[in-house]
Amino acid sequence: xxxxxxxLQAQRRIRPYIHYTRLVHSDFLSEMTGGxxxxxxxxxxxTGSFKVRGALNKLSQLNxxxxxxxxxxxxxxNHALGVAHAAASLGLKQVDIFVPETxxxxxxxxxxxxxxxxxxxGQTYEAAHQAAAEFAAQTGALEISAYDDLDVITGQGTxxxxxxxxxxxxxxxxxxxGGGGLLAGVATAVSHIKPICHIVGVQPExxxxxxxxxxxGQAIDPYDHAPTIADGLAGGFGEKPFELLRPHPPExxxxxxxxxxxxxxxxxxxxxxxxxxxxxTAVAPLITGAVDVRGKTAVCILTGGxxxxxxLREIVA
Length: 317
Description:
This protein is α/β, with parallel strands linked by helices. It has two domains: about 220 residues, Rossmann fold (3-Layer(aba) Sandwich); about 90 residues, Rossmann fold. It is built from 15 helices and ten strands.
C-alpha cells in the first residue's frame, strides 16, 4: 500500500522542517549484548519526538479547502507537538489539540508556546480522542489521526529510510510500539530496501495491544490499558498499521515498568541522554536479554526525549 517512492517523496517534503537525526554507536549496549548496537536519536527533533515527521507529511498535503476547515487532533503529547510544529511551519491558523489531563507537564509546557487552541480532556488518550472526534463532528474540522493514517505512517517511515541510508549493514531494528504508525512505517520502508532486516516492536506489558492484535487477527483499538509511565505507547493498535503489517507480522516483545525505568537510567548514565519512557522501551529488551542481538548490527529508535522532570528525579533516586 505504500511504495518506496512514497517514502522518498515524504522525505523530500518534510526535510526543510526536521532534523536528519544522528545514529550514535552504543559501546555500552554492544559490550552488554555482544552485538553492534546503534541508537537513532529522534529525541533531537525540533519537538523532541519523531512524531513531527508524520504530522508534516500529512499537513503539507492538505488542499486549500481542507486547510480552511481547520484541523483537530488528539494525542498523549508528542503527536500534538508534531501537529503544532507542522501547522506553525506551514502557516496553518486554526488548530485545536486535545490531550489528556494527565499529559506530562514537559509536553504541555511546549504545547503552550504554539499558537493553538489546547484542550485538556479526560484521563487517557482514548478520552482525549473521543473529545476530538466530537469536536470534529460539531465544527467540521479535519481530524488528524496520530497513527491510523497512511500519510502519517509514510512520514514516520522516513526514520527507516534514514537508518538504512546511514547504516546499510543494519540487520535488526528495535521500534517502540503504541498505535503502530512508526512500526508500520519503518517496517514497510525497510522491507523495500532490505527485506531481511528483522523488525522488533517493543510494547509495555501494561498495554500489549499490538501483540494481542496479531494474535487475534484484528486491530484492537481502543484498548483498556493498565497504568504505564510510557504514556505515548498506551492504548489501541490502529487498523491501518495492522493491515500494512498483517502479511508479515513483526516480532512484538513486552517490557515491564521496571525494565523501562532501568532503560531510562542506563541511557542517562551511559550516554548522557534524557529519553522519555516511550523511547527508552527500545533498549529495554537488550538490557534484560529478552532479545538476542549477538553478532548482529542493531538499531534502537529512541523516539522521544520529553521526559517529565519529576519522573526523572524519581528514577534517579
